[in-house]
């Protein structure tokens, strides 16, 4: 009985202790503690701001400056003129939706070096009647969405600084949604009213696909120049065009590619094949739609060496290594030091920093001039190869799902993950093996170049010794796996160079 009484007292004491803890008053937080989340949010925004692509900075920053100048001009007496609200934002977006397109490069030359907002044009657009409100040449969907992205960015910044507490849907209301839908639906209607050339958009890849060999020939002929940089540039452009088409890649992804991103796979041959298939693969960790996942570029040797992207990269790299002598004096320690070669770009010039991303204007400009010389229509030049490859597969009657896999097109973010598999059907067809029942037969691989010839090339002078040394180091220590893959890829590229060069001398001696 005494023990029961003692246990009951202990139980009542525990309940009382929990009750006391539950009703204890909350500790007051200091203003410094309350501002901590604000500072943390701003840190994250600053980190994302510093890692933005250059084109994003160019597009968004100028539009944000235009919005600030708009606030200065339209609301000069407002002490909180920069604070984002529905009325200011809608008036600004309405002006952007119904103004005329700006000349290429903006209108800073007419307004002043640091001017982006034209108050006179704003007043003119705002005062239009309903009959004449539609401009002759309005902005398109992409420009409107860039301004929307700018306002969303500004909203995040002001929310992080606790300037505003309103939710985004409270600012971007249904009136904005109607304005956005109007801009989107206006584009096809305006194209029809202005008799816009359909070949400039929908049918361009089909027209270009029929004359792909002529484009390659023009890019190859551009290499007949006494200047070494011109030859290097021509070989680089030729490789870009062929690989973007065969691999269905975005130009920006290829321009960001490092030499360390590449490797070669020798796929065991099927029963119907004569030879095993060599596969060129490169990883794309940073791209337009990767969003943290990794995409892959992949292609194989084409039946025709003139339009073979694997042969094209062999020609380009041989010439670049011949002139720059890069890696020629590398030791095993150099290859194991990832900092010394991991960041070297695939697409680079004979002079300058090989770790810097090249501007893709050079490639798009050359492609535009070639298409103009051939009398072919052109649009969206940087994505032409990606679209062209899809249209080639379409004309070869490839299944739609296989084309999506090959191009890694976003379809509901492609079931929440981009394809990284190897669709052999589309790859074979892009390499010239059009029928599913046609065996893989690469005549060029039947001739094995002698070792003396392989080691006489600019790459061969050093690649075989480097490969053997790194393989030995990898065997003993397990280090340098990426170096092994890349050097193995270089070894195969060196052999393909000799095979393709010999085949081209025989088949096209001119």
Task: Explain what this protein looks like in three dimensions.
The protein is mainly alpha-helical. The chain folds into 2 domains: 37-196, no CATH class; 204-507, hpI Integrase, Chain A. Helix content is 56%, strand content 4%. It has helices at 2-22, 31-34, 36-50, 54-74, 86-98, 108-111, 119-126, 141-160, 168-171, 174-193, 204-209, 212-221, 228-247, 251-255, 309-324, 332-336, 361-373, 384-395, 400-407, 412-416, 424-430, 451-454, 460-477, 481-507; strands spanning 262-267, 277-284, 295-300. The chain has a 3-stranded antiparallel beta sheet with strand order 1-2-3. Helix 3 (36-50) packs antiparallel against helix 8, helix 12 runs antiparallel to helix 13 (228-247) and helix 23 (460-477) runs antiparallel to helix 24 (481-507). The radius of gyration is 30 Å and the shape is globular. It starts with a helix and ends with a helix. Mean pLDDT is 81; it is low at 412-421.
């Amino acid at each position: 009985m005494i023990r029961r009484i003692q246990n009951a007292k202990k139980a009542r004491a525990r309940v009382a202790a929990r009750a006391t803890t539950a009703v204890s008053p909350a500790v007051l937080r200091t203003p410094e503690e309350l501002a901590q989340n604000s500072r943390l949010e701003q840190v994250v925004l600053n980190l994302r701001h510093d890692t933005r692509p250059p084109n994003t900075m160019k597009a968004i920053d100028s539009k944000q400056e235009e919005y600030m100048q708009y606030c200065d001009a339209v609301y000069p007496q407002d002490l909180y003129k920069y604070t984002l609200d529905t009325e200011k934002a809608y008036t600004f977006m309405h002006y952007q939706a119904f103004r005329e397109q700006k000349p290429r490069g903006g209108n800073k030359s007419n307004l002043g070096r640091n001017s982006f907002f034209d108050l006179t044009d704003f007043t003119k657009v705002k005062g239009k009647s309903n009959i004449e409100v539609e401009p002759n040449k309005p902005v398109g969907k992409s420009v409107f969405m860039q301004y929307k992205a700018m306002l969303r960015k500004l909203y995040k910044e002001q929310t992080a600084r606790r300037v505003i507490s309103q939710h985004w849907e409270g600012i971007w209301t249904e009136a904005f949604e109607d304005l956005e839908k109007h801009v989107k639906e206006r584009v096809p209607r305006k194209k029809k009213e202005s008799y816009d050339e359909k070949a400039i958009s929908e049918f361009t890849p089909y027209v270009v696909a029929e004359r792909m060999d002529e484009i390659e020939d023009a890019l190859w002929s551009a290499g007949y120049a006494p200047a070494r940089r011109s030859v290097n540039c021509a070989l680089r452009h030729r490789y870009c065009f062929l690989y973007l088409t065969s691999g269905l890649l975005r130009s920006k992804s290829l321009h960001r590619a490092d030499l360390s991103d590449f490797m070669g796979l020798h796929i065991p041959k099927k029963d119907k094949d004569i030879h095993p298939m060599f596969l060129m693969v490169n990883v794309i960790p940073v791209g337009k739609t990767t969003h943290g996942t990794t995409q892959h570029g992949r292609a194989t040797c084409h039946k025709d060496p003139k339009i073979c992207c694997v042969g094209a990269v062999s020609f380009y790299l041989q010439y670049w290594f011949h002139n720059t002598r890069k890696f020629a004096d590398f030791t095993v320690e150099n290859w194991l030091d990832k900092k010394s070669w991991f960041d070297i770009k695939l697409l680079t010039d004979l002079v300058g920093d090989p770790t810097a991303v090249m501007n893709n204007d050079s490639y798009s400009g050359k492609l535009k001039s070639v298409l103009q010389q051939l009398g072919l229509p052109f649009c969206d030049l940087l994505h032409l190869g990606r679209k062209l490859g899809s249209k080639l597969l379409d004309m070869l009657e490839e299944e739609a799902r296989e084309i999506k896999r090959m191009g890694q097109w976003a379809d509901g973010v492609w079931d929440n993950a981009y394809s990284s598999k190897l669709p052999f059907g589309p790859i074979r067809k892009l390499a010239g093996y059009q029928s599913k029942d046609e065996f893989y037969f690469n005549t060029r691989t039947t001739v094995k170049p002698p070792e003396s010839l392989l080691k006489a090339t600019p790459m061969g002078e050093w690649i075989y010794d480097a490969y053997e040394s790194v393989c030995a180091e990898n065997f003993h220590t397990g280090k340098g796996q990426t170096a092994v893959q890349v050097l193995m890829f270089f070894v195969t590229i060196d052999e393909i160079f000799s095979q393709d060069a010999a085949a081209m001398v025989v088949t096209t001696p001119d």
